Amino acid sequence: MLTLVIFLPLAVAVVLPAVPRRAVPWTWTAAALAEVALVAAMWAVHGTGGGVSFETDARWIPSVRAGYHVGVDGLSLPLLALTAVLFAACAVYSLRQTRRVREFAGLFLFLETVCLGLFAALDLLLFFVFFDLSIVGMYFVILLWGHGDPARSALKFFLYTFLGSLVLLLGFIGLYLGADPHTFDMVDLTRTPPLSGSPGLAGLTLLAVGIGLGIKTPVVPFHTWLPPAHTDAPAAGSAILAGVMLKMGAYGLVRIAMPMLPDAWRRYALVILIVGLVSVLYGALVALAQDNVKRLVAYSSVNHMGYIVLALGAAGYAAGGTDARRLAVTGAVTQMVGHGLVTGALFLLCGVLRDRAGSYDIGRFGGVARGAPVFAGLLAVASFAALGLPGLSGFIAEFQIFAGTIGAGAVATAVTGALAVTGILITAALFLRVLHKVVLGPPGELTPLVTDVRRPELAALVPLLALSLLIGVAPRALLDTIEPLSAAVVALVGR
Amino acid sequence: MMLPGWPGGLAVDGLSAVLLVTLAVVLAAVLAYSAREGYGPRFFVLMLLFAAAMAVTVTASDLLLLLMGWEVMGAMSYALIGYAWPDAGRVRAADTAFLTTRAADLGLYAAAGFAVAGAHSLGLDALAHAEAPWRDLIAAGVVVSALGKSAQLPFSFWLSKAMAGPSPVSALLHSATMVVAGAYLLMRLHPLLDATGWASTLVSWAGALTALLMGAVALAQRDLKQLLAASTCAQIGFMVLAAGAGTVGGGTAHLVAHAAVKSLLFLCAGVWLTRDGSHRLVDVAFGAGALALAGVPPLSLWVTKDEVLAGVGDPALLVVAFAASVLSAAYAGKALLRVLRPAGSSPVGLSQRVPLAGLAVAACGLGVLGLPGVAGEWRRLLGATDDVTPDVWMLVLSGVLAVVTVGAVVLARRVPEPGWALDWLLLERAATAGVVRPVFALARALDRFDDRVVDGAVRGVARAGRGTAALAGRRVEIRVDGVVSLTARAARWLAALARRPQTGQLHLYYAQAAVVLAVLVAVAVLAAG
Fold this sequence. Notes:
Helix content of chain B: over 70%
Strand content of chain A: under 5%
Number of domains of chain A: 2
Helix content of chain A: over 70%
Protein name (chain A): NADH-quinone oxidoreductase subunit M
Radius of gyration of chain B: 39 Å
Distance between the termini of chain B: 101 Å
Distance between the termini of chain A: 34 Å
InterPro entries (chain A): NADH_Q_OxRdtase_chainM/4, NADH_UbQ_OxRdtase, ND/Mrp_TM
Order of helices and strands of chain A: HHEEHHHHHHHHHHHHHHHHHH
Oligomer: heterodimer
Subcellular location (chain A): Endomembrane system; Membrane
Number of helices of chain B: 21
Shape of chain B: elongated
Strand order of the largest sheet of chain A: 1-2
Membrane topology (chain A): Multi-pass membrane protein
Structural class of chain A: mainly alpha
Shape of chain A: globular
Largest interface: A-B, 62 and 50 residues
Number of domains of chain B: 2
Strand content of chain B: under 5%
Family (chain A): Belongs to the complex I subunit 4 family.
Number of strands of chain B: 0
Structural class of chain B: mainly alpha
């Protein structure tokens, strides 16, 4: 079942050349919606229990004990669902796409398989293969459908994140060699953490894994590939890049780094906390200075992902009560989902602006609410979701992160957590600035060009924001799924 | 229960019930009034969302739900202040109001974290029992948030900006309900404030000083709505003072009576702002409200304010509060001058006259909450443990002072309007110069740093990589290539050399074999030797 879910998009992509051109967008949309239904069904079957469901473990490269090992649990299910939903939204959003539709759809279907595979992988080598393929896929999306200076941005994105993946591979090899017997299997590595006898090597391995995943997350100072990649990527590409692919880094931290290197994670928890705090404040402040709305959202992603790193760092303080650390980890996973939905929506909205007026410069808009009231309403909801208004997903995630981080009981977590709280004030300022400059106030130079959202755009955006609202108002369905997983991770880190 | 493992929810007790009823009554009055003012659906949606958020805030039994209602109130306030969004000035005012209150809200976020650490619970009842350093931190966070939401010093300036919104919005949010949420929270968490020792003193002084200084600000205002806004800060100061002093009964009575008075005054101000003339009923209602605000006997605020003052123990605090009380009579007198101005008449519909009349009756009559029999019941309802009743001399003194002060202001028709008070103690300028500008400057500096240094380093690495490649291409590659071709040349030369002996002539081969044999023999002999 899980293998079918993972490879269905790829299968559709393979037969896509045989589909008549006009049916291509609809085939893509149908496949993406089928994925949503399948993942929802898997979630329903898995329920809110602990453990791994839909496990498949096949021989793949037996000489290095790497297998095709996939499965879902409380961490992967929300991210698989997020992936399916975001890809479906991009498919619907791109129904009016005219440039090289077949290739576009094929590439996105390929990327969907890659992203689903990564979140389901229970083998380091399999994880790494999907990790690298996602970079390749996104490189072509930016290169072929980008605007501005796509070749340069795509190359920068590729080289930077590919370098990150090589460092990550180094870390994986460290884990492989540290395990006895040597294996790439995540379940085995989690059960008996490798390198537990040699703290120096474990630290180096954590450094390699941390840098590899940190570049993808991204954390300051490894974030500068992100703004140009986003600025020049097509709207759907940005939505996937920010919504799904950034999560791969944070997901890897929870799935690989924390449970497999618990000693090192605890020892360097302060470093992780500080990296998270710096990302939060630095990302928010730099975002505040941007006039290009896509760069602004990109930097705000650095801020939002910083909260996740902060919370995961707090989870490494084993001294305090486990209830607070569980809260922090649950908040971090909730933040991954919430940020995916909201930032995906924000990038699609940026795409609408560019589609109409050909510009991302917030200084050239204003009073868009008159000519495009629905667009204005959606942008307002998405902005308030991003700044963490209660009732939307961002708040419930950030509240848990702050409460869990500050509440972890150590002086370091209390201080960094309390400082990180100021991030939500800066985020509020920058999103109000966007609303003020684009949506409200007197009309600007490009305002007459901005017509309201069209039906496919609306159909793509409304579900994303509706899900954010659902998580914000009734978070229990999501939290109850994550909770057993965060309890397990906290226990694994604390051993 | 929103979070698994963290109990919490909504619950109604006496204090919540009082606030819910106040909210419902003022909401009904304001919406009935607004129905005839030509607002679109957006206005009513936002007002109702606001009311729901306020209802959640006052019934929440844990910090999470409290904060949810609390922040949504702020967002609705933003949307309603900026209701006329094409006007950039109003949007800016909305930005200022939202960001100022959210800056204070950070205190509640942090307090929730401290509560997890110190009390292992988010429940409001558990906070007072938190362990030692955490309890003080929780109290500090709560106090900052409450002072911000209630527009107490030093956050008061946002309420001045909030006046950019429509008058009915001010009548509901910025006088009767949202702004008193801070005072409500402090009264609800009074046990926590008491447990720390310092927090109740701090809160008392913050309230008293706000009452005094914002009273002076109100007195200096020339715009009626600004005067009313500053007077709201000042009056909430009395409630905050009550929360600090622990007189929950008096503080809540003041809150309820003030809600009726102030929403009445704002609605009347709205009538004057949107029409050319006035209406007899509006003039009478405003007059009654202004007299109640002044604390003129036997109207409501005279009684409730004295109940608050009666609970104050510290003489210095009492002097400040009394001075603030006199100032309230002065600014109410200044507002009253507005009624005495001759104005034309304009029609006011029945659906607007009824709420105005109802609020006016409440504004005059809610003093009954202080009557000896009623006051006991009231405190029982609120679960208040204090048992303070104002002395007769205090009631007489404050009543006389109020009447004299109002009379003096009305007769003099002129009050001092110092610049610092007219400009709201320069608070907004201080915030702009001290916080907003430095943050924006830092943001721009970091943006340049990000571009030049952080990304510059990445570009530098890339350039270095390209440079190395070019260098390798020009220099190293030539050398390496040279070595390779040299090897090839040498091989060719050797091959040519090797071809030489292959002549095909047998005698030469024999000769060569003989030479090789001789050499081998020589080598063998030498080696053996």
